[in-house]
Design brief:
2 domains; mainly alpha; about 0% strand; single chain
Length: about 130
């Protein structure tokens, strides 16, 4: 009886994987997919519960839920880029070159929105 082997071992490529390595990669992809699915299910659940039970809720609650959605979406996007787009396999300098401007841009947008709201409130106070 012939033993079944991974076809990638037949080639002399330096990046060929053993069956154990292939199994580890598949398990890692499955875990990440389940984690991202859990976050998505949580977001949908919060949306369904909030829409049914908090029809007349305060705007601060709604703002908190919107911020939660933004943070969870950024976490999901980070996992997708890091694992499925293989940014995690790159060297540290390349990861820093790609991620640092994105983080700074998101921070800049946050500062602009926060300060813009403060300036708007200041102008409203002066006019009233």
């Amino acid at each position: 009886m012939e033993q079944e082997i991974d076809q990638s071992l037949l080639y002399s490529a330096p990046h060929a994987r053993t069956p154990e390595q292939t199994k580890k990669v598949r398990n890692k992809i499955l875990r990440i997919t389940l984690f991202l699915s859990a976050i998505t299910i949580f977001e949908v659940w919060v949306g369904m519960v909030y829409s049914k039970t908090h029809v007349g809720a305060t705007s601060s609650t709604w703002q908190m839920i919107k911020m939660m959605y933004i943070v969870l979406t950024l976490i999901k996007a980070g996992f997708i880029v890091y694992y499925f787009m293989h940014l995690g396999d790159e060297r540290k300098n390349l990861r820093t070159t790609i991620l640092l401007p994105i983080v700074l841009l998101v921070y800049l947008i946050f500062i602009c929105l926060f300060e813009g709201e403060n300036i708007l409130q200041y102008v409203r106070d002066i006019l009233n």
